[in-house]
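Form P-L/3: holo structure prediction, ligand 1,3-dihydroxyacetonephosphate.
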Amino acid sequence: MKSMTDLISIARSLFSTGKGILAADESVHSATARLASYGIPASEEMRRQYRDLFLGTEGVEKYLSGVILFSETLLEKGNDKKPFPKSLAERGILPGIKVDLGTEPISTSPRELITQGLLDLPERLAEYKKQGAMFTKWRAVVRIDGDQLPTAAAIHENAKRLAQYAKEVQAAGLVPMLEPEVLLEGAHSRARARAVLEETLGTLFSVVEEQAVDRAGVILKTSMALSGSESGKKDTPEEVAEDTVGTLMQSVPKQVAGIVFLSGGQTPDEATANLAAITRKAKEMGAPWPLTFSYARALQEEALSIWSGKEENVPAARKAFMERLAKVSAALG
Ligand code: 13P
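OUTPUT (holo model):
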């Protein structure tokens, strides 16, 4: 059984210099939609090839400290005939696993979502651990709509479940990554985005403290503070950095093992430039935690559009993936 000291050092190792995390944990439903958006018909084998495109790229260990997998992938083999978690671990990349079971509408506020998956979590954690997972992720979703959403009740209920998840994961000897994603979709202003991020993270960490989760052993996965995608406004990287790092400094306890960012629908170039500005600002402000990326779309997009599901495009797609990884890694300063 791993001690808390072991868990803290595993969490910290995800922040090795110049490295970050690939989120490759799309559910079957999300992976099907992702592939369809590139005109790629989905099947179990196509999803396996989709995973192999990224996980099988030679040299990714230079930029990746970890990969978040979906339960289906944890049991599959790459084209090298090795189980994905094993081939990652052999290259020094920690395999992680998404453990939430997705979201459903809240009965009293049906446009808001609550994350499912606590019921059989201890049993599933024991299985994932046997299958090679070292860390885990739970995603909650926060939707902004003017002054109406999010409701305080939805933020609080999602925070309670994130904290409960973190407690169970630590008890199982794994590292929890808490992801309260504030959605980019919406017409909200820069100020509103910042205020919601502040409320979300403030609530989360007060519940985490109430429930006596060991904060030194948790990773926060957060959105950047960004004006809504339908606001007609594109914030500069400096604005994004000021709002994001300012909020984190206010809301996140210094003990937290580290903070990773999701890309949330930003283009690969935006997610790279914003990360660079955030890491600069964090240094300037003396932020107490290590920071890195944990992107899905911003790391995958260029490679997927080249790949298009065709074997002959794999080398060019992998080259584009490596080029994006190099840029995102350089953004860490
Ligand atoms: P994006 O980088 O595409 O937002 O995905 C990250 C993630 O893990 C979402 O849950």
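COMMENT: The domain at 4-330 is CATH 3.20.20.70 (TIM Barrel).
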